[in-house]
């Protein structure tokens, strides 16, 4: 998510409006449990580039009835 005058894109696709978060919808199944995701972000401010990387492991909760 970014400030009101910043356009956020996710894989080249812009968010709905400036200042709004870019969202990714994921349909997961129990076989996706433990899958890792990696995110890399770059922000350019006055010709300077700031980078941020993050990773997360998906935990899928399901019930076996």
TrEMBL record:
Q: Any transmembrane segments, and where?
A: none
- Gene3D superfamilies, per this entry? Immunoglobulins
Question: What GO MF terms are annotated?
Answer: integrin binding
Q: Which GO terms describe its biological process?
A: cell adhesion
- Would you tell me the protein name for this molecule? Intercellular adhesion molecule 3
